[in-house]
Each structure stands twice: as structure tokens, then as C-alpha cells.
Design goal:
Blueprint (H helix, E strand, L loop, with lengths): L1 H19 L11 E5 L6 H17 L3 E5 L6 H8 L7 E6 H9 L11 E16 L8 H10 L5 E4 L5 H13 L4 E4 L3 H9 L5 E5 H9 L4 E5 L25 E9 L4 H14 L3 H10 L2 E5 L1 H22 L5
Parallel strand pairs: 1-2, 1-3, 5-6, 5-7
Antiparallel strand pairs: 3-9, 4-7, 4-8, 4-9, 4-10
Helix pairs in contact: 2-9, 2-10, 4-11, 6-11
Length: about 325
């Protein structure tokens, strides 16, 4: 009798544990939220919405985007760090996640311990652009002009620690030149001044400059990626054009709160991998200059660590602090 009683209790406990497992209970069963720590309409928002649109077809539940901008992405990122690790609240991580630990002396979360990598979705790059009337027609020309008159050339950025800013700082360091940094509140006013010849160069995103390059209002002279891009096949990389080893990439990675069950991470990673093969992502890749990756969690972890180390050195050497 005692044996039967113990057996019944053990079966009851096992059943309870199984029912508590979101994976074995049929994950996902309800709406999933992807937090984008930027305002609607930007590149990260567009990538996240496309990802949500494709993943919900595979997962069979609705996926919504929650835009939580502020404090250099810290507000939205912290919100995910403190969310339940159940696979229903995710973060679209970016370049900012890798640079913020070096820009800020203290963050309200640990960039490593508080998050579980899900998938490296895509990598992107910036384009080096100048005024079409400029005598600078190549990276070699830019370096020569900067060395000939160290106080003359300036480059526009749209925020401390943004890819446009740090790509320029990395260029200055590796090329051994000086370019005066001119901060703006966004890409549009910076590009407007570049067209107006108030500044001489920008390291800007594909989305912000592609149409203007096509229209002849800007001249593109190189891409900041490690390899040439299918979006601009005629352009050399900065590395091959005169600064060997130079590479500055933007990227998009999906994260969950730490301690999210491995089975959920695996399910989400597989869904993301299928999503980036869709026609919608192929179109987005062409428009935004993205290289689709959908790498496994360990690859996102490795990539993040490399990016964090790269930009920590640039930020430290340039003495950059968050505004």
C-alpha cells in the first residue's frame, strides 16, 4: 500500500512538472513580443517587424513589436532583462548592445549574464559618402586630403556611440588621420549638411544614403564591411581601398532573458532561420544592404564578444563618453 502511495505521489509530481514546462505544454501558446529599443520607422524596427511577420507564420501565434526607445537603448533592453524567461518577451539587439558597456560606467543590467542569445539575424555595414562635387573620389583621396590639412575635414555623426560615429573614429585611428567630429540629432540633418558642403564626409547607413547616391546627390566611395556588398558591388571596402584590416559592421541579433529554457531557444532559433530565407527578407536585404545570417545562439554569443572587444578599444582610445 505504501509503495502504491509513493508511486502515485511521484507520478503526480512528474505530471505537475511536465505541465509547468512551457515547451512540453506546447510552446508557444500565446502572443510573443519583440522589444525594439528604438522609435518606429528605423532600420532596427523594419528588421524586427519583418522577422515577426515571418516567424509568426511558422510558430502559429501572433508576434508584435513593442517600441521602447530611450537612454541609448538602455530602457528597452532593461525591460527585457527583467522579463520572465518564458520565451514570450524577446529583444532585438543591435550594435548598441556591444558598445553601451564601454560608453556607460554603469548599466542596469549585465550585457552577458542577463540575456540568452537566440540568433544572429543579419549583418550590415555603412557607406562612406561625400559631396559629389568633392575632389575626394576614393579612400586614398580622403586620407591624402586629411593629411594635407589636418584641421580642414569634418565628418557628421548622428549620436555618440552610433555606427556612423564609431566607424569614423575607427577610420581615424587606423588611417592615422584627423577628422573633426560634428554631431547631429539624426542622419537627415547630417546628410543635408553634407550635400550643402558644410561637412566633408559621412560613414552612414545604406538606408539613409542609397536613394541619394542613385540620384547623384551623394558620391559613395567605399563600404565599411569586411567584404564587398552585393548592394554596392562596384564599391571597394575601406580595407582594400587603403586601410588594411578595417571593418565596421552593424548587426541585428535576437535575445531572450537569461534562463529561458534551452528547448525554447532552439525552437525560436529554428524559426528565425526559416524566416530569413523568406522573400520578404530577401527584398529587405537588397534594400537595406543586409547579409542574412540566422546563426545559432553560440555564434551570436561569439560575434557579440568580438564586437564588444573591438569597440571597447576604439571608445577607450578616443576617450568617448556617453552624452
Amino acid at each position: 500500500m505504501l509503495f502504491r502511495c509513493l508511486t502515485s505521489i511521484l507520478f503526480a509530481i512528474a505530471a505537475f512538472v511536465l505541465l509547468q514546462s512551457p515547451v512540453l505544454a506546447g510552446y508557444p501558446e500565446r502572443l510573443i513580443k519583440i522589444v525594439v529599443p528604438f522609435a518606429p520607422g528605423g532600420g532596427t524596427d523594419v528588421v524586427a517587424r519583418t522577422l515577426a511577420q515571418e516567424m509568426q507564420k511558422d510558430l502559429g501565434v501572433s508576434i508584435i513589436i513593442e517600441n521602447k526607445p530611450g537612454a541609448g537603448t538602455i530602457i528597452g533592453t532593461q525591460g527585457v532583462a527583467t522579463s520572465a524567461p518564458d520565451g514570450y518577451t524577446l529583444l532585438m539587439g543591435t550594435f548598441a548592445n556591444a558598445v553601451n558597456p564601454s560608453l556607460y560606467s554603469k548599466l542596469p543590467y549585465d550585457a552577458h549574464k542577463d540575456f540568452a542569445p537566440v540568433a544572429l539575424i543579419a549583418r550590415s555595414f555603412n557607406v562612406v559618402v561625400v559631396n559629389p562635387a568633392s575632389p575626394v573620389k576614393s579612400i586614398a583621396d580622403l586620407i591624402a586630403a586629411a593629411k594635407a590639412d589636418p584641421e580642414k575635414l569634418s565628418y557628421g555623426t548622428y549620436g555618440t556611440g552610433t555606427s556612423a560615429h564609431l566607424a569614423g573614429e575607427l577610420f581615424k585611428h587606423m588611417a592615422g588621420v584627423n577628422l573633426t567630429t560634428v554631431p547631429y540629432k539624426g542622419a537627415a540633418p547630417a546628410i543635408s549638411d553634407l550635400i550643402g558642403d558644410q561637412i566633408q564626409v559621412m560613414f552612414t547607413t545604406v538606408a539613409s544614403c542609397a536613394a541619394l547616391v542613385d540620384a547623384g546627390q551623394l558620391r559613395a566611395i567605399a563600404v565599411t564591411s569586411a567584404e564587398r556588398s552585393a548592394a554596392f558591388p562596384q564599391l571597394p571596402t575601406v580595407s582594400e581601398a587603403g586601410v588594411p584590416g578595417y571593418a565596421a559592421e552593424a548587426w541585428y541579433g535576437l535575445y531572450a532573458p537569461a534562463n529561458t529554457p534551452a528547448e525554447i531557444i532552439t525552437r525560436l532559433n529554428a524559426s528565425a532561420a526559416r524566416a530569413v530565407q523568406s522573400d520578404a527578407f530577401k527584398k529587405l536585404g537588397g534594400n537595406e544592404g543586409l547579409v542574412m545570417v540566422a546563426a545559432p545562439p553560440a555564434e551570436l554569443d561569439r560575434y557579440f564578444a568580438g564586437e564588444e572587444a573591438r569597440w571597447r578599444k576604439v571608445i577607450r582610445d578616443a576617450g568617448i563618453k556617453a552624452e
